[in-house]
Amino acid sequence: MPLGAGDRAPAFSLTDDEGHAVSNETLRGKRYVLYFYPKDDTPGCTTEACQFNDNLSQFQRLNVPVIGVSADSAATHRSFKEKYDLHFPLLTDADRKTHQAYGAWGERPGRGVGVIRSTFVVDEQGKIKRAWYGVRPDGHASEVLSALAQ
User: Which helix (H) or strand (E) holds 99?
Assistant: First the structure.
């Protein structure tokens, strides 16, 4: 079921590419961007990650961390980050429970069941401020920045 503005962000606790636990509790009191993507080092996912990375200083000026989530392993995440010099955490959701909680896993029109590329801005109170489903990777980081500026 899709999440919308005002919904409580589902609880999660996942491990990042360096083995650290990241959870809604560790992020409590902060706004943050949580984005779900299908697979490290694929064309669309690389475009999306690189554009978030290219705009990272603007997210940092707003004090808004960017966090990527996929089912890939920590080792795959580290490789992806090194290859493209990415400077934000990538979390592993191997069982896709967090994907499911956020509505980022399910039926995709004409493509079967899989990852629904999705992004969420979560506010300081742990509520969804903005949600995007079926994201087009190119230009999405700028779209999220624009929403944060409002």
Answer: helix 97-101
